[in-house]
Amino acid sequence: MEILRLRPRIRPEIPVVGGRGIATRDDAERLAANGVQAMLHGQSLMTADGISAAVCRLIG
Q: Whole-model pTM?
């Protein structure tokens, strides 16, 4: 994910949003562990068979 490459260049006090390539809970946890405070989950939810189930899988 591109944001993981860029995160070290962004000052810690600036909120960071991840917006591409987030399809699984592991993806979300990896971003959070690297200081990403918010995530956009567009395609992974819109292409899921059931949006509610997909959200539950992402947030646990």
A: 0.75
